[in-house]
Amino acid sequence: MVIGITGTLGAGKGAVVAYLVREKGFTHYSARAFFAEEMESLGMLINRDNMVVFANNLREKYGPGYVFEQLYAKAKKSTGDSVIESIRTVGEAEALKAQGGILLAIDADQESRYARIHGRGSALDQVTFSEFQEQGAREMNSDDPNKQNIARVMEMADFTIVNNGTLTNLHQAVENIFKKV
Predict the structure, then answer these.
(1) What are the tens digits of pLDDT across the range 48-80?
(2) How far apart are CA 95 and CA 22, in angstroms?
(3) Residue 44 in 3-state DSSP?
């Protein structure tokens, strides 16, 4: 089984991935780690804005499904189930579905999401609320197939979890999805 994770910034995608890895034995493949490794090898400053530009340039050069395709190629070499985090373009979602994967969207209210990103302590997430809103808005919609279009990708999801509750609620929502697949 391959599950692709999409969703808004700070919604809980990483918490779902951690649960799948810990409780279900999934292997995790991360777009963020993929970009960071490539950017580091080129001596680039790693921050969220640079990462978005870098990812968009890769997709423009190699195609809108490129990131998923690279991570999926790694997943195919492993045994067992895989989770790919995070699906950001329509091309990536289409590539996932073409391989028989399941697309899971995670969302939450804006204030909760902002509080969560600050709780992570990642250098990528040290932004003001205004910057957080701008980043989210920039990634939600685009007519360019090589750029993030999270709103459209979330519409394509097989399942959506609204993560406004506790971690226990989130885990139960994941379990409810597993009862259906």
Answers:
(1) 789 989 999 999 999 999 999 999 999 999 889
(2) 26
(3) coil
> 63 in the Ramachandran plot: left (φ > 0), alpha (ψ -120 to 50) or beta?
left
What residues make up the domain containing 155? Answer: 2-172
Strand-by-strand arrangement of the 159-162 sheet: 27-30, 82-85, 2-7, 102-107, 159-162
Within its chain, how far is the Cα of 112 from the centroid?
17
Structure tokens at 105: 């969207």
CATH number for the domain that contains residue 121: 3.40.50.300
15: number of Cβ within 10 Å: 16
pLDDT bin (cut points 50, 70, 90) of residue 145 is: very high
CA 140 to chain centre: 13
Count up the domains in the chain and report the number: 1
Whether 117 is covered by a domain: the verdict is: yes
pLDDT band at 156 (very low <50, low <70, confident <90, very high): very high
Region 112-116: what's the mean pLDDT? 89
Residue 43 belongs to a domain:
yes
Q: What per-residue confidence (pLDDT) applies to 119? A: 74
85: enclosing H helix or E strand = strand 82-85
Closest CA to 4 of 76, 67, 96: 96
In a domain, 178, yes or no: no
181 within domain boundaries: no
